[in-house]
Write a structure and sequence with these properties.
Blueprint (H helix, E strand, L loop, with lengths): L2 H10 L2 H4 L7 H24 L3 H26 L7 H13 L6 H13 L7 H6 L11 H12 L2 H15 L10 H21 L2 H28 L14 E3 L2 H6 L8 H6 L8 H8 L3 H6 L2 E3 H9 L3
Parallel strand pairs: 1-2
Helix pairs in contact: 3-4, 4-5, 4-6, 4-11, 8-9, 8-11, 9-11
């Protein structure tokens, strides 16, 4: 947040009201993590018991949505909003989220913090990587946008995104020394144990059906929709309050598109130290400020509001 924006907003909110919103509550984070995994396992179980193409499709959608939800929790951990002990914050997040998604929180963090520091500029790696790419050019017709969504469901665009995603997060920070074998060991152990278990239990078929397919399809589909919602389409990038979008999601949109309050993206950019479960309270506080209420880019819903702003 710029000093000017910070002064205007902070002067309108009492310190004793704002400060508690930054306090991490690890049990809330852990409970959300466990719930996501429970839904994933439940979807797999129901699909194997009542297997049918339609049931399988629904399972892929639900699993991809919960993968996306896990990634949102990882995003909170990137800002050290899970555990105060940074080592355990990262290690637990890696084993429960990032290693299953084929990367690590350290690799994501070095990219993401630059995004916050240089939002929507030539030094913002997220912005630069998407600027001029056809999928992120707007306006689009509803048909054009839905065609992109369909291309994820048939795995075509998801595979492309996965390659792009993994390449970006493999880039090393030149200021950091090479990792030692000991530092690489947890990730190596995770994959050795996982792949050994899949081989011993004959689980490769289920891994492909219920992890690889959702990963390459609906996971990246939901990632794409969220990315578009956060920084593209009818946004004015010359002001901090209009460079990011907050989307007030419906209940079903919260489950599939905006888990763990990720729709409050403008608030997150202004106060990245506030954990996900306090973002609605932060939003309500900020809305009491007339300047924020008038200028902030707030969209009512994904299907109605966002689609309209994208020209779809």
């Amino acid at each position: 947040m710029t000093k000017k924006t910070a002064t205007v907003l902070n002067d309108s909110i009492a310190t004793e009201t704002l400060k508690p919103l930054f306090q991490p509550q690890p049990m809330k984070h852990a409970a959300a993590m466990l719930l996501n995994w429970a839904i994933i396992l439940g979807a797999i179980y129901l699909c194997t018991v009542y297997f049918h193409p339609i049931v399988y499709f629904l399972a892929v959608v639900v699993i991809g949505a919960r993968m996306h939800a896990l990634a949102i929790l990882m995003h909170d951990a990137t800002h050290y909003r899970f555990l105060k002990n940074r080592k355990w914050n990262d290690l637990i997040t890696d084993f429960t989220t990032m290693y299953p998604l084929f990367t690590s929180i350290e690799q994501y963090r070095q990219n993401h913090l630059r995004h916050h520091k240089h939002l929507n500029t030539e030094h913002d790696p997220d912005w630069v990587s998407k600027l001029g790419v056809e999928e992120f050019r707007f306006p689009k017709t509803r048909g054009e946008f839905l065609w992109i969504i369909f291309s994820y469901l048939i795995l075509y665009r998801g595979v492309k995104d996965a390659i792009w995603f993994l390449k970006r997060f493999q880039l090393k920070d030149k200021k950091q020394p090479p990792k030692t074998f000991r530092e690489k060991l947890p990730k190596l152990m995770f994959y050795v144990v996982l792949f050994s278990a899949l081989t011993a239990l004959g689980g490769w078929k289920y891994y492909a059906l219920f992890w690889v397919v959702p990963y390459f399809s609906t996971f990246f589909m939901f990632q794409y929709i969220r990315s578009v919602a956060e920084h593209f389409g009818e946004l004015e990038h010359d002001h901090e309050l209009t460079s990011s979008r907050t989307v007030k999601a419906t209940a079903i949109e919260q489950f599939f598109l905006a888990p763990h309050n990720v729709g409050y993206h403008l608030e997150h950019h202004l106060y990245p130290g506030v954990p996900f479960y306090n973002l609605p309270a932060l939003h309500n506080l900020l809305m009491q400020n007339p300047g924020y209420r008038q200028k902030a880019h707030i969209t009512q819903g994904y299907w109605k509001g966002l689609m309209k702003e994208l020209g779809a």
